[in-house]
User: Fold this.
Amino acid sequence: MSRKDAIDSLFLKKPTANEKSATDKSAVRVRTGAISAMGSSLQEMAEGAKAAARLQDQLASGEAVVSLDPSAIDGSPIADRLPAAIDPKFEQLEASISEEGQQVPILVRPHPETAGRYQIVYGRRRLRVAANLGRDVSAIVRNLTDRELVVAQGRENLDRADLSFIEKALFALRLEDAGFDRATIIAALSTDKSDLSRYIAVARSIPINLATQIGPASKAGRSRWVSLAEGLGRPKAMDAINVVLESEQFRNSDSDTRFALVFKAVSKSPARKKVKVWSTPKGKKAARIRQEAGRTALIFDEKLVPAFGEYVADQLDRLYTQFLETSEGGEADQQ
Assistant:
């Protein structure tokens, strides 16, 4: 039987011969009234053709949509989202559900350890909206293994083009740290081995506290997150970032703007190294004195002044004693 026949049978109450027989044998697990209501709501779905097709498949296969108390639903064992302090899309979703009701059910599984509770597979925003509005949430309950859960979780978010690069990267890292094999992670993210390695490398390079404060930054893209990860290795990069994180501008900005502020702080050119040259009385440039943040290096050209570097090294105690005898040196030593 085609999908169209299945949906017509469910929503227009025109059962085929096979379905009528199944109904007579009490094989249909979803009440006609509930399906009719869901059928009319499908026509108003605002989440796109993929969500509608997926829901039609679920209904045609006989999966029941039930109402659950949001407080009875726990999070997934593996988080896949970063919180966003300012999230206009969530506010729009909340307004839509408040006015028109929840159009697409979430997916949950029975909690593997606690009877009467559930774990969410996908639909976290819809669950959060239901909790905010004080309503039950429409859900499909499906028995899933841990592997099936994370694969369904990842695939749903990819189908909806909903996870940003850093969220995918952190999701991959959490899956790996939880002991899932690479084949499962690749299936969950619909990616390949090389991309997966990049995801995990970036996620390991960026402190989770920093990523959490920035948020998903959906417009940043892979190349900029990679550049940020590389920039964190520069001297005093975190000092510059901490100044940004404490600023009022950062606190009042959305996730993409927060990323831009941090990226700009890390991307600033580091202070130039000061390099002086020491020449012998005959004019030979025999040494370079290089000064940078907190350090000074004296480098001799052994070809021009052989053994002189070793001689200077042997005189350091005497030179430092002379240095301390000066008023300026003594003050510096006491600080």
